[in-house]
Write a structure and sequence with these properties.
Distance between the termini: 98 Å
Radius of gyration: 43 Å
Helix content: 55-70%
Number of strands: 0
Shape: globular
Largest sheet: none
Length: about 1350
């Protein structure tokens, strides 16, 4: 419809249209409504509202009644769109009176009844359309986006569209009636009451409206393709508001049960996906979570809490039975939803009876729900019960033992199929269900024994969630021996030939038994238990399994004295293990190995005499693949270790085992057989390699042979596993201390260097092992003789080595690493000459960055040791180097990589040893420096002329490697103090373009080149250009590159420029987000001011910058950081200022620091989202407060409250739980996970710094000669620190504090109590409520028992 753009004409057209609405009877009502909407939406709002009132009356005139036209208007969505537009235009008092006179609530009730009555659209037959297909509708405009056909409006989709606009109109009306919105003038308050009275004066109609709307919410989940969307987020709030406006009475909960309960539970069931219902798809996850939260609050406020109140009066819970009775279609979901809300009903913490009352309430609710779900299918019912019990565990509302026992008997154990998940939940709720009913416990254990063929997942549930918790329950009941006897009895019932298949054989059961044994039993109880187990007819297999767990847990002398003889007689006297499975019979060797570590030498000999024949038999005939053979080998080693340094027979037997392992390696290529043996040998046997006599020599030789043989398998076995094996021996602590073993291990690879066989295997992967093995040993193991042999080998075969290295990059890296490791210690080998460096730099592959770095490192190490020892051969060496430098000529005005590395290495080595001029007769540092200068200058000029920036940007790494070497030569020249290079303006411009291209590739070379240009041509780069370069630094750039850039810029600048640079960077507003360069520059400038290494750069006589102002600005920015890296560098710079420039810090700086800590920990703190943000930010805040306490303690006198605020913020953040839904949870945005106990230790350290100050931290404090400064500081802190204790107690009432965190905070709590006088303790006690006083009472009792020094 065409309308004039003049607002006045819009209003006039609207007035005329309203006056003539009923004149033309031929126009259908939807068309009139569409015309009204077009004019109304285009009309400008004025203070007169007569037109809106006329529209309101006209609409309600046609909405009232039972005719089809009235239904059409009520269903038409645009009707409600007009109402939502009209409601805010009419004053509240007038609107309220008009709606009352128009019977708004009755009409609304009819409309809600219409939209809850949906039906399918009748199909149109061909005869009705004369066989002509209907025309496709054109794209609708915004004012015609709703269907106008009544049959289409009656469909489910049409009803939801109508409901959407109805909710919008109702929300608009209720917002008008909310006194909290808009102005609070009396007329508005009166009008708001008018609106509320519309719904409160008609209870039944309002109830039906709310019930219809909640039913519509439920149906929308099925009708809408994408579920709920953001436009529906206010629906539940509107329904809740309507229900709340009703006049309430004692039967409200019954009304809720009959009209609201079923759809509320249905929506929650479908949104949460519980009781076997698939969760519905939603378009907006936030709206879904909002609905869940609001519906749970709705259910709690108007159903659960009233029911709880009625129950507290007469223990009547009939309303729950009514609600569950009407929820037949969704019985499981309703039960889960009701229990979730009921179990979380808040308690009155001020009442001492609240715990018992809540327990009684929870018991009765659970009983009613349990009775209600009986009609469900057994499988579904059990799943519902599991969910109920899971909630009971989370909320501490566990049903009674009798109820749980009934559930176990009637639901978990009622059929042949045992529900292990349900039994696991019952055990988690209350293990006494089984401990107090021996028949029930035996039934469960019998089912475990008879079902050993479970799938792995079920076995895991039975072991970890049933058996292990029952073990702990027996410990709490002080009857751990009873569990062991039950375990033994169940094992006895299993067939001996399949004993290793039973669940009771699971290793986790025995490991848990071992961990609990000594804390759960006394030595006397253990003696009685062992007497009971060692009966004449005891099954040997069951006995071995139980004794394996017991022997693993015996470590204390009292228990060893009891268990030694008993276990020996039970295992080794008159026992046979012939018909047991191998996994069972091997346990006797494991037990014997543990006993060997307990006993004295005489008892070990007794054990050896008993096992000798069996061990010899296994060595002679046993198969290494048999697990029993491996356990026997471990037992043999432990027996020898117990007899050390004696035990010749055991040493011989152990060596025989090792020979058998070596033979297996040589004859069979399967790693899986020998890997456990090699791992054990390399880990534990080096301890015995120092045995005196031939036994030790044989053992060392065998270990070395196994090490060498395993290395020769490199390439044929899994490389990762072999590498892991070979690294374990050189890094073994026992091996490092045994020089003879190291010699045996290294002699083979060093001797093999000259072997023709090894040279032939260089082309094979296993040949790399020879060099990798040398690299794994500590540097000290490579003695002078070995280093000389390695270098002589390299010199002898360097042609072959270089040839193979050119084809195999891995070989090249390995050889270079070995040469560097050798040269890390002074090594003057035979025939050493400068030509060796020439050869290695020119022949080794230099197309890789790592290779170049290794070659450069080797050259530097070799030249440095020659320069430091300029005597005899070293002078000849340097003379040859001088000849080489003089003979260097550029090839086509360009130098290759190798000469550049050599000359740079010479300059660096000679400069660092310049205090010793003994080499001056052989070589001149000035000449070499000038040669390097010419080489760098010509290389840069040639590089700039021949290299295009586009080629760099396209990714030519070889050019970048060459440029890196040239720039390292330039950096070397800067280090020795050479004058700037002379480059043309054209060359500098080209290098600038290359630098920019490198930066675009995020290559470090670009920053190095830029630093060189700034250092060499400072006049080209003013402060603006320097700022622009800093802003290009991305988050991936290395910090040292920016620091080098800053050093280059300030090198020749005066003091005023440096101060100005620091000031402008701090005030730039670019330190909290974006490029990291400006922030790194600030930090470097602060470091440079008094850095000893830069004394030549700065004039110390100049006035220092105002570091107090710099600190103030950075402390303010700390809370605005937008990334973890920015926060990290800001905090480190603040620490640097507080520590190094403490004299520049004023009282204001200290208070600003602590205020920034408070701000960072507040809800308005920095919005940093990073996996490591929580822990790292908290650590940085700890360091700031800690440094204030250590260096600026004197500034806190008279200003202690600001410190208390910082400590309170840190403590609140420490204990905050981001995963909690509690409304009282206050946390900073960066805290996305709970902090760990290590952070609690940091906070405890702050408390001890305050309460137990060091003498240095309070040295500024003046006190009398009769009173120490530390005592005065403690007294001053004691007047305030109890408030931190008060906060800690109150926080424990609001959040759950993990046990580890509470344990870590104990020393800090005790240190506060140490300095708190009695009067302050009394004030603390009075400031707490009953629950807080209970916590403080227990805390103080623990302090007196464990924390207070008694002087003993």
């Amino acid at each position: 419809m065409e309308v004039d753009s003049d607002p006045g004409s819009h209003r006039l057209a609207l007035i005329r249209a309203v006056r003539t609405l009923d004149e033309d009877k031929t126009i259908a009502l939807p068309k009139k409504i569409q015309r009204l909407w077009a004019l109304l939406s285009a009309s400008k709002s004025i203070r007169f509202h007569g037109v809106e009132e006329n529209i309101l009356r006209w609409i309600f005139k046609h909405m009232s009644g039972d005719t089809e036209d009235a239904e059409h208007v009520r269903r038409y969505p645009l009707t409600w769109s007009i109402l939502s537009h009209v409601f805010p235009k009419i004053p509240l008092q007038t609107l309220g009176r008009s709606l009352a006179s128009l019977r708004f609530v009755s009409v609304l009730r009819q409309a809600v009844g219409d939209i809850t009555t949906a039906r399918k659209k009748p199909s149109v037959s061909p005869s009705q359309t004369n066989g002509v297909a209907p025309e496709k509708t054109k794209k609708r405009k915004r004012d015609d986006e709703f269907p106008s056909d009544i049959e289409e409006l009656r469909t489910p989709v049409g009803c939801i569209k109508s409901a959407t606009e109805l909710f919008r109109a109702l929300g608009s009306l209720l917002d008008q009636g909310d006194q909290r919105t808009g102005s609070n003038v009396p007329e508005r308050r009166v009008g708001a009451e008018h609106i509320k009275s519309l719904f409160s004066s008609s209870n039944e109609e309002t109830r039906d409206i709310a019930a219809g709307l909640i039913l519509t919410c439920d149906r929308s989940l099925s009708v809408l393709d994408r579920g709920i969307s953001q436009g529906q987020e206010s629906w539940i709030r509107i329904i809740t508001t309507l229900w709340n406006l009703r006049l309430h009475n004692k039967d409200d909960s019954v009304e809720f049960a009959r009209h609201m309960y079923v759809p509320v539970c249905s929506i929650l069931t479908r949104l949460r996906g519980i009781a076997g219902v698939a969760p519905v798809a939603v378009a907006n996850e936030a709206t879904k979570n909002l609905w869940i939260r609001q519906l749970e609050q709705f259910l709690s406020a108007y159903f659960i809490r009233p029911a709880r109140h009625m129950f507290s009066i007469d223990e009547n819970i009939e309303v729950l039975e009514i609600a569950l009775g009407v929820s037949k279609r969704n019985l499981g979901g309703s039960a889960i939803v009701t229990w979730d809300v009921a179990a979380r009903t808040p308690r009155d913490l001020s009442s001492p009876k609240s715990k018992a009352e809540h327990s009684l309430w929870a018991q009765n609710v659970f009983r009613v729900i349990l009775n209600a779900i009986q009609p469900l299918e057994p499988l579904v019912r059990n799943q519902v019960i599991i969910r109920l019990l899971d909630t009971a565990i989370q909320t501490g509302s566990v049903p009674s033992t009798s109820v749980l026992r009934t559930i176990c008997r009637e639901h978990a154990l009622s059929s042949e199929e045992t529900d292990w998940n349900l039994i696991a939940k019952i055990v988690a709720c209350d293990a006494d269900v089984f401990l107090m009913d021996d028949a029930l416990l035996q039934d469960v254990f019998d089912r475990v024994s008879s079902h050993s063929n479970h799938d792995p997942a079920t076995r895991e549930i039975i072991v970890t969630e049933i058996i292990l918790p029952l073990e702990e329950a027996f410990v709490k009941a002080r009857n751990f021996a009873g569990f062991i006897q039950k375990l033994y009895s169940c094992l006895c019932q299993s067939p001996p030939d399949s004993l290793d298949q039973t669940i009771w054989f699971d290793a986790k059961i025995r490991q848990h038994l071992a961990s609990l044994l000594q804390s759960a039993m006394t030595p006397t109880q253990l003696l009685r238990l062992l007497d009971h187990l060692d009966s004449p007819n005891a099954p040997s297999g069951a006995l071995l399994i139980v004794l394996d767990g017991i022997s693993a847990g015996v470590t204390e002398d009292d228990f060893i004295n009891i268990a030694d003889s008993k276990i020996f007689s039970a295992v080794f006297e008159d026992k046979t293990y012939e018909y047991l499975p191998p996994l069972i019979s091997l346990l006797k060797w494991r037990i014997a190995g543990r006993m060997a570590s307990w006993e004295t030498s005489d008892e070990v000999r007794r054990l050896w005499a008993k096992l000798k024949s069996s061990l010899h038999l296994i060595v002679k005939k046993g198969d290494l693949a048999d697990p029993e053979a491996f356990e026997a080998f471990k037992c043999c080693h432990k027996l020898w270790l117990a007899n050390y340094p004696g035990g010749a027979d055991l040493a011989k037997l152990t060596c025989t085992f090792l020979q058998k392992v070596r033979f297996q390696m040589q004859s069979n290529g399967d790693l899986s057989v020998v890997q456990p043996y090699l791992d054990y040998i390399f880990r534990y046997l080096p301890r015995l390699a120092g045995s005196p006599g031939q036994e030790g020599i044989n053992l060392r030789d065998l270990i070395a042979d196994l090490f060498w043989d395993a290395g020769t398998r490199f390439g044929s076995w899994d490389e990762t596993e072999v590498t892991k094996l070979l690294r374990s021996l050189p890094h073994n602590f026992d091996c490092e201390d045994e020089e003879a073993l190291v010699d045996a291990l290294l002699s083979r690879p060093v001797d093999a260097l000259d072997s023709m066989e090894v040279r032939a295997s260089w082309s094979e992967l296993r040949g790399v092992f020879l060099f990798l093995s040398l690299l794994e040993f500590p540097r000290e193991a490579l003695t002078k003789g070995r280093r000389k042999r390695i270098m002589s080998w390299w010199k002898k075969y360097r042609e072959a080595i270089s040839d193979h290295a050119s084809r195999d990059p891995r070989f090249a890296v390995t050889i270079l690493r070995l040469l560097v490791k050798v040269m890390e210690q002074p090594t003057f080998y035979e025939g050493m000459e400068f030509g060796d460096l020439i050869y290695i730099s020119s022949t080794m592959p230099n197309n890789d960055k790592n290779n170049i770095a290794l070659v450069e490192r080797f050259i530097d190490l070799a030249l440095r040791q020659v320069a430091l020892n300029p005597e005899g051969p070293s002078l000849a060496y340097l003379a040859n180097a001088s000849k080489f430098v003089k003979s260097l000529q550029p090839k086509g005005s360009e130098y290759s990589v190798a000469p550049m590395l050599l000359v740079k290495g010479l300059v660096s080595a000679l400069h660092k040893s310049s205090t010793n001029n003994s080499y001056s007769s052989a070589i001149s540092l000035d000449e070499v420096t000038q040669k390097l200068r010419r080489m760098v200058q010509s290389s840069l000029s040639r590089f700039a002329a021949e290299t295009k920036a586009t080629k760099i940007a396209d990714g030519d790494d070889s050019m970048l490697h060459t440029l890196d070497i040239v720039l390292s030569g330039a950096a070397c020249l800067a280090e020795v103090g050479s004058r700037p290079l002379e480059l043309t303006e054209e060359t500098v411009g080209q290098l600038q373009s290359i630098s920019t291209s490198c930066m675009s590739r995020k290559a470090d070379t670009g920053w190095k080149l830029l630093a060189f240009l700034i250092r060499n041509h400072p006049v080209r780069y003013d402060m603006a250009a320097f700022f622009a370069q800093l802003e290009q630094a991305s988050d991936t750039v290395e910090e040292d590159l920016i620091y080098d850039l800053v050093d280059a810029f300030v090198k020749n600048r005066d003091h005023a420029i440096r101060v100005r640079l620091l000031t402008e960077l701090v005030d730039s507003g670019k330190l909290t987000a974006g490029p990291i360069g400006p922030l790194l520059a600030v930090r470097r400038l602060v470091e440079l001011h008094r850095s000893p290494s830069t004394s030549s750069l700065l004039n110390e006589s100049q006035d220092a910058p105002d570091f107090g102002a710099v600190h103030e600005r950075l402390a303010f920015l700390l809370g605005q950081a937008e990334s973890l890296r920015h926060f990290r560098h800001l905090s480190e710079t603040l620490l640097l200022l507080l520590d190094k420039y403490a004299n520049s810090m004023t009282q204001f700086n200290i208070e600003t620091t602590l205020s920034s800590v408070v701000h960072v920990c507040s809800q308005t703190g920095p919005k940093i989202y990073h996996p490591k943000a929580a822990g790292e930010i908290y650590d940085r805040l700890y360091k700031l407060v800690s440094l204030v306490l250590k260096r600026h303690r004197h500034r806190l006198r008279g200003h202690f409250p600001i410190l208390l605020a910082a400590l309170g913020a840190l403590l609140t953040t420490l204990l905050a739980d981001p995963g909690s839904d509690a409304p009282t949870t206050v946390r900073p945005p960066w805290l996305d996970a709970r902090l760990q106990p290590r952070h609690a230790e940091r906070f405890t350290r702050l408390l001890t710094l305050i309460c137990e100050p060091s003498a240095a931290s309070v040295a500024h404090t003046r006190s009398s000669e009769l009173d120490s400064a530390t005592d005065a500081a403690k007294r001053a802190a004691g007047q305030y620190m109890f408030t931190i204790l008060e906060l800690y107690i109150k926080l424990q009432l609001e959040v759950t504090v993990p046990r580890d965190v509470r344990k870590a905070l104990e020393p800090g709590v005790y240190s506060i109590l140490d300095i708190t006088p009695q009067g302050c303790r009394r004030v603390l006690n009075e400031s707490l409520d009953a629950n807080g006083r209970a916590i403080f009472r227990q805390m103080f009792a623990d302090y007196k028992k464990f924390g207070k020094w008694s002087g003993v």
